């Protein structure tokens, strides 16, 4: 049924439809609407789950780790400082091979306090062993959450469903909310591969010495490598059930493009408009949206971008001392190619600064006009009058 | 000594990685006798995370979930929620943490869990310092103690945090102290906590550490007994945060306990006198609360 939902509630609706059994939550702007809605579902019985209102995000993750270890489907959601506080237990969740799904609303980290859109929070967690899926809009958020449960439970790794602060989390859009029967066809009950069982006692996650540790870490890497093809297969099934296509990397007009713009999250929607306009003006511009950041779809990136002369990457994040994180990952993925595109890295829209059609047009213009990429990422939209 | 103590119900395997004379090793034996086989242990970073056995071994015959340092209570609450959702309300979920994982880094999630009154038992086996990392002070380390971070003339000059009062302030159904040297009382309290389902139960276990305290491993039980007999570690229970019961009153001066340990060897007679006064005052406070509980209960009795 088509409903008008804000992005946060697209996620909470997916959690309800996924018949999650244990949810832990702690409020933080701009995530709070997700756990509020789930609390309501638990209170009115529309979701038969236990909601644990914990005292911190560190405890949110610990609670769902404990619950997931008993073999139930689990969910939590957070943002920004909350995600940073979870850092230790994010590692625990993935090394514990627990298929936890988390809604993560991209927000800047302070100081100064900033509640607005910025990818630095989730990207700082890139090495924690979590699958990361970025969403463009509310429908994408609902669909991706359902896919995330299937994916996490297939490879036994936790998965993060990432949406933009406010641009997605607080924006109301028409969303096709599937009925329960259809969701049940796509997402059967969790069948855990292992669980805490008093009849078959085992010690989960004890101390591991050098004789075994590397093999355990290798198994996480194997799980991540399996997650790529698993995502493609599950997205295929999703399309056959729901009729909507999702891919790790989506392209618009990249085949003949002189310049391909790479985006993630809600910027993609704005970029679609700008790219279409420039196509109408006869410019051969393409668009590449990266949905799946972990595992990084390097092979797809090589296939999609490998033959383009120029690639311009918009990063709503910065790794200080390095540059735009998506751009650096793309450069790494393209490195094995003998003939590589010139990759232009742009940092824009930090801390909720709007990335407007004009910003995107400027990025495209800069990439066209600059003969060779600079070593450093170029910051777009800085106000020269502001001197911190 | 009751038969239940000697009977080996077989929930621990012989041998673990504990130091000789480790109080926690004795504590887990007593505890599992009171808890029974339908128990899940949640163990954060602490001595017992090592003692329970490195992969692929385990020293216990009940399931163990090892968790991050700060998370014992809330991880246990998560296990509880997961079991409940599958209709298993019979299994007892027990967090088994050291004093660091209780008094210090674990207190936030412990307080949150107690405030929600989640249906778990939280056990602190208290050896009064960070023993697993080589004897550093914690907020459970008593006044007068030398540790590797309160060395020499810099011995600890602040008092041990009163964790029982903190837990009682949460008005949880049950909080009790237990001592490895008093096994009947110890096992009774664990069995009682197991039977009192439906809320957070807290047991503060006195667990001697010969390695960290500078006593011979053969004296592990004796030093633990002296702690209670000198009223340094009284045995008592608090129900619903307000109803206090004192199980045993000590009869020895604190010097008998303190003087037997290397960690207190530097204390002067004046220091011992100060500690004696504080211990006396603390015991008097417990006695007042016990008396007040009796008065309140008598007052509440229906007239016949």
**Level-1 CATH class name of the largest domain in chain A:** Alpha Beta
| Low-confidence runs of chain B | none
Poorly predicted ranges of chain A: none
CATH superfamily of the largest domain in chain A: Thiamin diphosphate (ThDP)-binding fold, Pyr/PP domains
Q: Please estimate the helix content of chain B.
A: 40-55%
Q: Give the SSE string of chain B.
A: HHEHEHEHHEHEHEHHEEHH
Structural class of chain B: alpha/beta
| Biggest beta-sheet profile of chain A | 7 strands, mixed
Shape of chain A: globular
Sheet with most strands of chain B: 8 strands, mixed
Straight-line N-to-C gap of chain A: 49 Å
What is the CATH T-level topology of the largest domain in chain A? Answer: Rossmann fold
* Total helical segments of chain A: 13
Rounded to the nearest angstrom, the distance between the terminal CA atoms of chain B is 40 Å
How many runs of DSSP E, i.e. beta strands of chain B? 8
Strand content of chain B: 5-15%
Mean pLDDT metric of chain B: 95
* C-alpha-based Rg of chain A, rounded: 21 Å
- The total of beta strands of chain A comes to 16
- State which percent range the strand residues of chain A make up: 15-25%
Q: What would CATH call the architecture of the largest domain in chain A?
A: 3-Layer(aba) Sandwich
Question: Which key phrases capture this entry?
Answer:
heterodimer, A: about 400 residues, alpha/beta, Rossmann fold, 2 domains, seven-stranded mixed sheet, six-stranded mixed sheet, 16 strands, about 40% helix, B: about 300 residues, eight-stranded mixed sheet, 12 helices, globular
């Amino acid at each position: 049924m088509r409903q008008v939902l804000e992005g946060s509630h697209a996620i909470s609706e997916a959690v309800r439809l996924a018949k999650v059994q244990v949810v832990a939550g702690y409020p933080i702007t701009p995530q709070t609407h997700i756990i509020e809605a789930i609390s309501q579902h638990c209170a009115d019985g529309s979701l038969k789950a236990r909601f644990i209102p914990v005292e911190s995000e560190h405890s949110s993750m610990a609670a769902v780790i404990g619950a997931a270890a008993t073999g139930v489907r689990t969910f939590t959601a957070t943002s920004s400082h909350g995600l940073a506080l979870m850092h230790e237990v994010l590692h625990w969740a993935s090394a514990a091979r627990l298929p936890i799904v988390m809604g993560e609303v991209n927000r800047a980290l302070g100081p100064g306090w900033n509640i607005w859109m910025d990818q630095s929070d989730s990207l700082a967690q890139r090495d924690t062993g979590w699958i990361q899926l970025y969403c463009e809009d509310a429908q994408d958020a609902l669909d991706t959450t359902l896919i995330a449960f299937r994916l996490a439970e297939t490879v036994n790794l936790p998965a993060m469903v990432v949406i933009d602060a406010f641009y997605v989390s607080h924006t109301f859009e028409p969303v096709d909310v599937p009925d329960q029967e259809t969701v049940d066809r796509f997402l059967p009950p969790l069948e855990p591969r292992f669980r805490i069982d008093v009849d078959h006692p085992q010690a989960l996650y004890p101390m591991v010495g050098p004789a075994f540790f590397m093999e355990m870490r290798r198994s996480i890497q194997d799980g991540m490598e399996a997650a790529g093809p698993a995502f493609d297969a599950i997205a295929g099934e999703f399309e056959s059930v729901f009729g909507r296509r999702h891919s790790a990397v989506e392209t618009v007009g990249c085949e003949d493009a002189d310049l391909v713009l790479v985006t993630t999250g809600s910027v993609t929607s704005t970029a679609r408009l700008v790219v279409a306009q420039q196509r109408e003006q006869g410019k051969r511009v393409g668009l590449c949206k990266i949905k799946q950041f972990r595992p990084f779809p390097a092979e797809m990136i090589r296939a999609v971008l490998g033959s383009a002369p120029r690639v311009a990457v918009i990063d709503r994040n910065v790794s200080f001392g390095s540059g735009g994180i998506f751009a650096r990952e793309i450069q790494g993925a393209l490195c094995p190619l003998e003939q590589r595109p010139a990759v232009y890295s742009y940092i824009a829209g930090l801390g909720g600064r709007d990335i407007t059609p004009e910003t995107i047009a400027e990025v495209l213009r800069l990439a066209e006009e600059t003969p060779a990429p600079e070593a450093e990422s170029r910051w777009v939209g800085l106000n020269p009058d502001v001197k911190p | 000594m009751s038969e239940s103590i000697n009977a080996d119900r077989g929930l621990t395997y012989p041998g673990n990685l504990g130091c000789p004379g480790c109080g926690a090793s004795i504590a887990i034996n007593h505890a599992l006798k009171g808890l029974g086989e339908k128990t899940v242990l949640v163990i954060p970073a602490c001595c017992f995370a090592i003692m329970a056995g490195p992969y692929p071994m385990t020293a216990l015959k009940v399931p163990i979930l090892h968790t991050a340092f700060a998370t014992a209570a809330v991880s246990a609450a998560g296990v509880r929620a997961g079991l409940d959702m599958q209709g298993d309300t019979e299994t007892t979920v027990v967090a088994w943490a050291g004093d660091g994982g209780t008094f210090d880094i674990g207190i936030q999630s412990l307080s949150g869990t107690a405030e929600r009154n989640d249906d778990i038992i939280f056990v602190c086996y208290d050896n009064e310092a960070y023993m697993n990392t080589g004897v550093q002070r914690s907020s459970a380390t008593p006044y007068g103690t030398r540790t590797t971070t309160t060395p020499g003339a810099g011995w600890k000059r602040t008092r041990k945090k009163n964790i029982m009062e903190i837990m009682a302030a949460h008005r949880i159904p049950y909080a009790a102290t237990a001592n490895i040297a008093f096994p009947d009382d110890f096992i009774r309290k664990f069995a009682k906590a197991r039977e009192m389902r439906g809320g957070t139960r807290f047991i503060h276990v006195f667990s001697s550490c010969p390695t960290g305290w500078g006593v011979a491993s053969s004296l592990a039980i004796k030093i633990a007994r002296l702690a209670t007999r000198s009223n340094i570690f009284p045995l008592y229970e608090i129900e619903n945060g307000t109803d206090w019961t004192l199980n045993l009153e000590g009869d020895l001066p604190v010097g008998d306990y303190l003087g037997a340990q290397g960690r207190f060897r530097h204390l002067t007679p004046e220091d011992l006198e100060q500690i004696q006064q504080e211990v006396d005052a603390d015991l008097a406070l417990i006695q007042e609360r016990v008396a007040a509980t009796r008065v309140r209960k008598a007052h509440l009795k229906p007239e016949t």
